[in-house]
Specification:
This protein is α+β, with helices and mostly antiparallel strands. It has a seven-stranded mixed beta sheet with strand order 3-9-8-7-4-5-6, with helices on both faces. The chain has a two-stranded antiparallel ribbon with strand order 1-2.
């Protein structure tokens, strides 16, 4: 609650204050004002009495007054990415290093290791996965546009890297498949590794041009990543993948899939 003390004292917000608020109240950084607010009046140690709506608006105004300063930028490890594992130590560098990776290519290692490393670094730990949604139309055939297979084995590896054990109970939702026999056969194969997993179609019949992995956790949080079809992780193709960090993008994706 350092941010609160600074706001009440009339001090400007710092990068670490924004990070704390993003973790505890991500709705403040959303463009949507649709989440319910119950007006309750609380007395604060201040010369005003704020109700919940007024207090939220005051916090948002305070957050919007944030200005990056050279002292913060020069701190070791500074980065504006909430889950950044890389360093931005050059104050006048152009842009910011996000968790986006380019991997693969002829004569290089397949991108699978880099992909699963990113999943492990940015996933939510210490909570159970209740649903995994994958928008990958090639997963049932196990063969991608360049003819490589391996999508099914990479799917099993993905589920393992998301902290699912052989005893985990979760739902796997995939690109809508009208062939019931093919879906049942696929589910039987999944159950050999994860017997408590159920396989179903996700809720959007539209075509997803891009591949998304959307994960819903037992504590209500979500994580999402974008990248290639899973069968492309073992190829020599050049791929770009990363984690979705924009709250609005993740919210819109959840509305399309849940």
């Amino acid at each position: 609650m350092e941010w609160f003390n600074r706001m009440v004292l009339g001090l400007p917000p710092r990068a670490k204050d924004l990070k704390e608020l993003k973790e505890s109240a991500p709705e403040l950084f959303s463009n949507e004002d649709s989440f319910p607010v119950t007006p309750i009046i609380y007395p604060f140690i201040h010369h005003f009495y704020w109700n919940t709506h007024e207090f939220r608006e005051l916090v948002k105004i305070w957050v919007q007054s944030y200005k990056e300063n050279a002292e913060e930028r020069s701190e070791e490890g500074y980065c504006d990415h909430l889950y950044c594992l890389r360093k931005k130590v050059i104050p006048d560098a152009e842009g910011y290093m996000q968790m986006m990776t380019v991997a693969g290519g002829k004569g290089r290692n397949p991108p699978a290791k880099s992909f699963f490393d990113l999943i492990n670094k940015t996933k939510i730990k210490n909570t159970n996965v209740v649903r995994v949604i994958l928008t990958d139309p090639f997963i049932y055939t196990d063969v991608g546009q360049t003819g490589e297979g391996g999508g099914f084995s990479n799917l099993l590896t993905l589920l393992e890297n998301l902290n699912n054990s052989t005893q985990s109970t979760f739902e796997l939702q995939l690109t809508p498949q009208n062939n019931v026999e093919k879906k049942d056969r696929f589910e039987s194969s999944i159950k050999q590794k994860f017997p408590n997993c159920t396989v179903s179609n996700h809720n959007n019949s539209s075509t997803f041009h891009d591949r998304f992995i959307f994960v819903q956790y037992a504590n209500g949080e979500h994580r999402a990543w974008y990248g290639p079809s899973l069968n492309g992780l073992g190829s020599n193709s050049i791929i770009i993948f990363g984690d979705l960090i924009d709250n609005n993008a993740v919210t819109q994706l959840s509305k399309m899939l849940l």
